[in-house]
Design the sequence.
């Protein structure tokens, strides 16, 4: 008896004429780990809702076909009966905390109290799931005081404690930094080892390739393929579905490494042959490729002996000296290293305790943030902190109008930038009806439209799928072509390797390294100290026995 | 799409989650008004929005809980005005349901009505608890002037409340109206829609 | 600021009294001062409330709370002292203005009542954890959903307040001014409040989902993680309070 059976499932949200789920059928056996992949609009989240009964009971709408959890059909049961058997964890850790409990321990109890679980059983289950999720140390803490990764583990623990037959994880790491994501992946692996039935939607293909028994590829509400990871990832047309295969597949494809029997590519680091001989493009070829856009002149920021602390005696920035101009610059380093504080200082949102920042020779201390608005643009991580207009186009015009552009100018700039970020056709929509990834693009356009000489991004790739990421890359290149200085905080090292010529490694309020990206990823000690990993491709080539630093698969022959 | 009944006591989960959010919005409205040194309170935007979205009863509950929480966290005196806040929620909810938020003009009228009714409800409270003052400098100055001219206490107290409440409520309702008009579809749908599941 | 309540964590006899008895005390203490119009009686009740606060070791914490109501109290004294309609006997004069005995007497009475109101609530607020109060009400039959609402407000508001700094930064980065003339400042109100409102309303959807997943609408009996210890003296205390209250009413009716 399958633990889950989906038969010809079709679904439309109310007020929509489009099928969010379109004739999907599959089954899941007990203990299986099923991965779900596809681009942001593929229907992964809707499928998760349908398996946990939120579709149709919470969302209403038009529903066809059937979903069976064991013997129970979803349509004729209430959400609370369904969620007793199916646990759902979704992207945003913050909104999964109920808000009514003041400690992690009590938070986990919330669902059990509602289910009427006897008190002693309750205590036992809470302890059990805390142990499983490795959060015993947090039990007395307020859930809202935790980091994203910790919160997400509490969310999983809260659901696990209810003893579901199936656990659904809908991109649980997409809003977390790499450390938080790693924490979550570690416990997911542990749960899988315990024999839990898991269905997981995820953008990090390397992880799915490592855990999943099967992969479902969704596109536009339809199930394109249901197969083994190596089958699905060996498809030649993955990019059409907005999916990038694991880096190992990409390299293997470039090198022509595939199984003779099945014609499939290796999908994990372990499966890559170790003794394989690699050939590299000669270094001057690489150089000519990477320095193509150099030589442009941009605005110049000079930082001299910068110190800053939020509290007295606790410096977050300790004596920085750096000159920034020319090619786009990546800033990497772990959370709390002071990266965001640094860019806020650059933007004069914070005042340095000592030291000075010069913009084209003029000290920033003599200007205000509002005045700097027309010279330096800073795009924050969370678009929700700034969006307040009813229409995308008005939101994008807000900044330009504030800094004195005429409404005609502002409109022209706004349109151009919406086009650049790929949202030209959504100008009249309500920003909050768009996805978070799209909203990030709106926020980006709203700063770019101010046409500043310097553009600073804080984590532009977080939560973006492959298409979003390549859009960001395009934007950075086009800004550079327009002779603007681009500075970018990033956690995604693959993206850094592909996009930036110069990288700064941040740690503990200071710089460990500043120079060409290729050299940056050769700094073993600095990387370890900053708790940053090398890009996947770099690691792979080193593992195959070469000490050369490779940044892109196109460098291989 | 049929709108759900105005007085339904069957609150959805979404309505329960809306209440704390609305109280928070009230709180932040007041906070930002302080930060920007605006001469108004603007501390009922959440109550008004909740009424517009989820009806008079939810609005009234937001009002009461708002003042209970305020009483618990800042000033116990605000327990007294829980009734006023509840009435604001009711009035907005009923009038919104009857179509008084279809354009700016009507929203101004709604604001005036809310301001007057708030003053009518507050006056007996003010008289009962503190013989008619409100603690607002301008209002109390007017109150004192009218008493000095030997006008009746209730009239002076009512005038005191009116000058304080009406401008504030007109601004509050107008701002709420602007925000409400711009709410994304998926939020409005969640509260509007009592739709059935259509079987394909 | 993760906890926005005024609760003061101490171990005192007042802290140990069960929340519902304290709630009854608040009600009786306040209504008694309004039923009785005798200065001395009201003063006595206020004194008693103060003594309870001192027993609870939280007297110092009530002072700032009374301070919040200072404007109201000052306004009562000034306005009533000068202008109360019953004014007849001049108490003393400051320059050309006369303070009247009748008005002053009423102002004094109201002030005592207001201070007692604040102090009586203080007994409840300063010595009771909000979640204990809500739990007590839940076990008296308050719907768990309303219990949820009351508790989550206390958690969610600090989270929303924490957003304000980020929003201010983000909008200033787009050239918005928070200083200047009144119209300029007023124009900044929506850009600041708008994101919080839209966020928190949009978030209600996700949080509703989270609650549904955790059985918020489950039918059938619910259980409680913690057992409430019953407070030994709640019955005698409550009876004493009610007797006192009846005495106040009788006295008022008789006199």
Sequence:
């Amino acid at each position: 008896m399958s633990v889950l059976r989906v038969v010809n499932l079709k679904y439309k949200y109310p007020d929509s004429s489009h099928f969010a789920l379109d004739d999907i059928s599959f089954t899941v056996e007990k203990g299986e780990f099923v991965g779900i992949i596809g681009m942001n609009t593929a229907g992964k989240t809707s499928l998760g809702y349908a398996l946990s009964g939120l579709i149709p009971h919470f969302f209403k709408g038009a529903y066809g076909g059937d979903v069976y959890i064991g013997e129970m059909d979803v349509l004729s049961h209430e959400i609370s009966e369904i969620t007793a058997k199916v646990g759902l964890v979704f992207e945003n850790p913050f909104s999964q905390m109920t808000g009514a409990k003041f400690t992690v321990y009590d938070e986990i109890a919330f669902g059990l109290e509602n289910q009427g679980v006897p008190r002693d059983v309750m205590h036992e289950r809470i302890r059990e799931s805390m142990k499983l999720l490795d959060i015993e140390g947090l039990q007395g803490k307020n859930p809202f005081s935790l980091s994203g990764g910790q919160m997400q583990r509490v969310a999983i623990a809260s659901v696990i404690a209810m003893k579901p037959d199936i656990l659904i994880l809908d991109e649980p790491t997409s809003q977390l930094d790499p450390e938080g994501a790693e924490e979550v992946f570690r416990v997911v692996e542990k749960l899988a080892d315990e024999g839990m039935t898991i269905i997981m939607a995820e953008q990090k293909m390397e992880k799915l390739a490592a855990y999943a028994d099967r992969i479902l590829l969704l596109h536009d509400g339809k199930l394109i393929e249901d197969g083994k990871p190596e089958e699905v990832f060996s498809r030649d047309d993955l990019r059409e579905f907005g999916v990038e295969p694991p880096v190992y597949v990409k390299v293997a494809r470039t090198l022509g490494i595939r199984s003779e029997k099945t014609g499939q590519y290796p999908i994990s680091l372990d499966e890559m042959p170790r003794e394989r001989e690699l050939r590299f493009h000669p270094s001057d070829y690489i150089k000519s490729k990477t320095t193509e856009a150099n030589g442009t002149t941009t605005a110049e920021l000079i930082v001299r002996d910068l110190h800053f602390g939020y509290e007295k005696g606790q410096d977050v920035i300790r004596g920085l000296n750096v000159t920034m101009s020319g090619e786009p610059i990546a800033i990497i380093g772990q959370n709390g290293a002071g990266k965001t504080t640094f860019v806020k200082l650059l933007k004069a949102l914070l005042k340095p305790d000592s030291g000075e920042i010069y913009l084209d020779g003029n000290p920033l201390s003599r200007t205000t943030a509002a005045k700097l608005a027309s010279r330096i643009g800073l795009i924050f991580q969370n678009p929700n902190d700034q969006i307040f207009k009813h229409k995308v186009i008005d939101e994008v015009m807000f900044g330009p109008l504030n800094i004195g552009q005429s409404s005609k100018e502002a409109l022209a700039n706004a349109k151009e930038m919406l086009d650049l970020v790929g949202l030209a056709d959504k100008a009249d929509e309500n920003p909050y009806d768009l996805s978070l990834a799209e909203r990030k693009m709106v926020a980006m356009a709203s700063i770019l439209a101010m046409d500043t000489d310097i553009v600073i991004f804080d984590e532009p790739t977080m939560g973006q799928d492959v298409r979003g990421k390549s859009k960001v890359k395009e934007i950075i290149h086009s800004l550079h072509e327009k002779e603007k200085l681009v500075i970018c905080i990033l956690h995604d090292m693959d993206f850094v390797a592909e996009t930036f010529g110069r990288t700064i490694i941040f740690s503990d309020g200071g710089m460990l390294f500043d120079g060409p990206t290729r050299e940056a990823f050769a700094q073993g000690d600095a990387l370890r100290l900053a708790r940053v990993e090398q890009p996947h491709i770099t690691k792979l080539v080193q593992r195959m026995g070469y000490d050369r630093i490779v940044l892109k698969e196109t460098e291989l022959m | 799409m049929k709108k759900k009944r105005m007085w339904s006591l069957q609150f959805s989960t979404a309505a329960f989650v809306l209440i704390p959010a609305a109280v928070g919005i009230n709180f932040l409205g007041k906070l930002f008004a302080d930060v920007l040194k605006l001469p108004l309170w603007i501390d009922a935007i959440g109550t008004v929005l909740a009424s517009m979205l989820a009806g008079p009863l939810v609005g009234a509950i937001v009002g009461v809980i708002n003042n209970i929480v305020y009483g618990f966290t800042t000033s116990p005196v605000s327990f007294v005005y829980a009734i006023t806040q509840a009435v604001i929620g009711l009035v907005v909810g009923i009038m919104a349901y009857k179509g008084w938020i279809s354009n700016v003009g009507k929203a101004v009228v709604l604001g005036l009505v809310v301001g007057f009714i708030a003053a009518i409800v507050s006056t007996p409270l003010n008289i009962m608890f503190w013989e008619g003052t409100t603690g607002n400098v301008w209002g109390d100055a007017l109150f004192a002037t009218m008493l000095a001219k030997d006008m009746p206490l209730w009239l002076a107290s009512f005038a005191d409340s009116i000058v304080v409440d009406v401008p504030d409520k007109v601004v509050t309702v107008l701002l709420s109206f602007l925000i409400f008009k711009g709410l994304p579809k998926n939020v409005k749908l969640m509260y509007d829609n009592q739709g059935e599941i259509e079987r394909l | 600021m993760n906890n926005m309540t005024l609760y003061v964590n101490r171990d005192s006899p007042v802290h140990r009294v069960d929340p519902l008895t304290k709630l009854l005390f608040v009600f009786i203490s306040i209504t008694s001062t309004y039923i009785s119009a005798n200065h001395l009686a009201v003063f006595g009740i206020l004194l008693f409330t103060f003594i309870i606060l001192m027993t609870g070791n939280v007297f110092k914490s009530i002072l700032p709370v009374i301070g919040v109501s200072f404007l109201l109290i000052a306004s009562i004294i000034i306005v009533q002292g000068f202008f109360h309609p019953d004014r007849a006997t001049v108490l003393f004069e400051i320059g050309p203005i006369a303070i009247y005995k009748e008005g002053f007497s009423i102002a004094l009475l109201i002030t005592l009542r207001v201070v007692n109101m604040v102090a009586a609530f203080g007994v409840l607020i300063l010595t009771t954890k909000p979640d204990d109060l809500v739990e007590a009400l839940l076990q008296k039959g308050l719907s768990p959903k309303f219990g949820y609402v009351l508790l989550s407000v206390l958690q969610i508001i600090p989270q929303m307040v924490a957003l304000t700094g980020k929003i201010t930064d983000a909008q200033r980065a787009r050239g918005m001014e928070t200083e200047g003339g009144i119209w300029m400042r007023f124009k900044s109100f929506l850009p600041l409040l708008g994101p919080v409102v839209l966020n928190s309303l949009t978030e209600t959807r996700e949080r509703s989902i989270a609650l549904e997943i955790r059985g918020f609408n489950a039918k059938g009996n619910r259980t409680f993680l913690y057992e409430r210890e019953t407070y030994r003296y709640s019955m005698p205390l409550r009876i004493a309070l009610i007797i006192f209250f009846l005495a106040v009413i009788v006295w008022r009716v008789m006199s």
